[in-house]
Design goal:
With 345 residues, the chain is of the alpha/beta class. The chain contains 10 helices and 19 strands. The strands form 4 sheets. Strands 3, 5, 6, 10, 11, 18 and 19 form a 7-stranded mixed beta sheet that branches. β16, α7 and β17 form a beta-alpha-beta unit. α3 packs across α4 and α3 crosses α8. The longest helix has 18 residues. The protein is globular and about 60 Å long. The two termini are 16 Å apart. The mean pLDDT is 97. The structure holds beta-D-glucopyranose. Beta-D-glucopyranose binds next to α3.
Length: 345
């Protein structure tokens, strides 16, 4: 069977290869991959900057945003059922992983499908632990491929609400910086919760943002500070300078959440009094969030389906490129929407 593989830590080694057929062992469910989404992490791995192959192996099967179909009945799943699967697995020796929260792993020894020490989903068949599978409702169909990035947003929002809720706080006004898949999904989740949302990015306009009832600001002609202050600011552009600025965009008790990655070695600027005075006197918080707990996956699937009901045409426009596995370079180069690799119709 074919798979999209790469040699981690080596640049441009990604290619399609014939790999041995996977058999499900006792306790596993065999699933057939329909489609995998491509994100910045896949690009970083492919550029040799991130990722680890399974122990004793040279190649890593890519793909952590999966949509699959169950091949055989078993363990509460039925043949033909749509599923996705979690990414991160327990390190086996920390209290967070012991409580089924590898998203909060305290050692960093976790493994991640398609990223760290575990093969991913960009191959025709995968044998999966049923506890890691998440059912996708029929109504969601191929949009189920968005479950993984949505789970990242759900975790961030759950944590923001928990942090905000440590004291009286209202989430009325939010700013999302970045209009890639995470920025757009975040915009739609916040709109589902009837929050007033501004989404800012470089392009002159963004129809998908406006279709959700959020307002769009092009950073080309607007300073973020002109948009006023916010209860919640999400950085999903992956720009460390903007990340530093988020603290200055907050209202009293405001929360800034960082989701984009910016690995560039650089010094960023932040006005001294924003950190030294306002953050203290106004009880502001800046935090980062990665990965997702199972509860976030369940919330993601439910909210994606609610969003599809409310904005059916808009949701269909989230995936802007669908190509077969062998055309992966196009998907990796694609910007301006989610690109997916199709393994089966
Ligand atoms: C994935 C997360 C993962 C993170 C770090 C992201 O692209 O969505 O699930 O934890 O990369 O490896």
């Amino acid at each position: 069977m074919i798979a999209l593989v790469t040699e981690p830590a080596h640049t441009h080694t990604t290619h399609v290869e014939d790999v041995p057929v996977v058999e499900a062992r006792e306790g596993e469910v065999l699933v057939r991959t329909l489609e995998v989404g491509v994100c910045g992490t896949d690009r970083e791995i492919s550029e040799g900057l991130f990722g680890v192959a399974p122990e004793g192996e040279q190649l890593l099967v890519l793909g952590h945003e999966s949509l699959a179909v169950v091949e055989r009945d078993g363990y509460g799943f039925t043949r033909g059922q749509l599923v996705t699967a979690t990414v991160r697995r327990s390190c086996g020796h920390c209290i967070a992983c012991a409580e089924d929260s590898p998203d909060s792993c305290l050692t960093g020894d976790y493994s991640e499908r398609g990223i760290t020490r575990l093969h991913g989903y960009a191959r025709e068949l995968v044998a999966e632990d049923p506890e890691q599978l998440v059912a996708i409702p029929k109504s969601l169909g191929r949009l189920g491929v968005l479950a993984e990035p949505t789970s990242i947003c759900e975790r961030a929002l759950r944590h923001a609400r928990t942090i905000g809720g440590r004291q009286p706080w209202q989430l009325e006004r939010a700013l999302v910086i970045g209009a890639g898949a995470i920025g757009l999904l975040m915009t739609y989740l916040l709109r589902l919760a009837d929050v007033e949302v501004w989404t800012a990015s470089l392009e002159p306009e963004n129809e998908l943002v406006e279709q959700s009832g959020a307002r769009y600001a092009s950073t080309h002609d607007n300073e973020l500070s002109e948009l006023g202050k916010f209860d919640l600011v999400i950085e999903a552009a992956g720009n460390a300078q903007l990340m530093a600025q988020t603290l200055g965009l907050l209202r009293r008790s405001g929360i800034a959440c960082l989701l984009g990655i910016d690995p560039r070695v650089q010094t960023v600027e932040l006005d001294g009094p924003v950190l030294g005075v306002d953050t203290i006197l106004e009880n502001r918080v800046l935090f980062g969030s990665v990965n997702a707990h199972r509860q976030d996956w369940l919330a993601a699937v439910e909210d994606l389906d609610r969003a599809r009901e409310r904005w059916p045409e808009a949701l269909e426009q989230f995936v802007t490129l669908r190509v077969p596995l062998d055309r992966f370079p196009e998907a990796f180069e694609h910007r301006g929407g989610k690109a997916t690799l199709v393994l089966s119709d």
